[in-house]
Amino acid sequence: MVTVSDVKQYIYCPRIIYFDHVIHVPKPPDLKLAVGKEEHEDITKKERRRKGAIFYDPFLDEAEKLFKVDLESKALNLRGVLDYLIRSGREYVPVDYKFGFSKKGAAHLNHKYQLAAYALLVEDNFDTIVRRGYIHYSKDRINARIDFTDEVRDHTLKVISEIGKIVEEEIEPEGTRTKARCKDCEYSRYCENV
Description:
- It contains 5 helices and 6 strands.
- It is an alpha/beta fold.
- α1 packs antiparallel against α4 (about 110-125), α2 (about 15-20) crosses α5 and α4 packs across α5.
């Protein structure tokens, strides 16, 4: 089953899926991930105490807040654990925490499609339609809004399918065209893309 993190990784560089799920190369411990988990716990504690949602939208003042929402869909061949889900009446708003900077106030592309994958899971699990979601960037305190259009949904479904094909057929895809990403990649020592 494809994970929501796989969607993020695929958008960043499709070859990561191959290294991770096909040839299972070892990767070094991720120190940023350990720090991120601590920061994640801190922001979750703060959000649990707040009256309204993280966005201080009056419409969401009485919203129900769900944290660490475990989601899975056999129909989508997708699973993941959503950081935070706001439920206000019939509206569901997925939120993902990121412990870095936004892209000048906007979401990074791989984060956008990761959140879109969560939105698809929320729709499937709660029999609803998700119209918007947010990515909270802690370093610059930006809540980047993502609107879930048909185009975003379709592209996300295509990515999920492509990830499944890479794993199932053991296809080594092309690496990212953005070579700057290779500099910090934990797989760079295995990759001929560098």
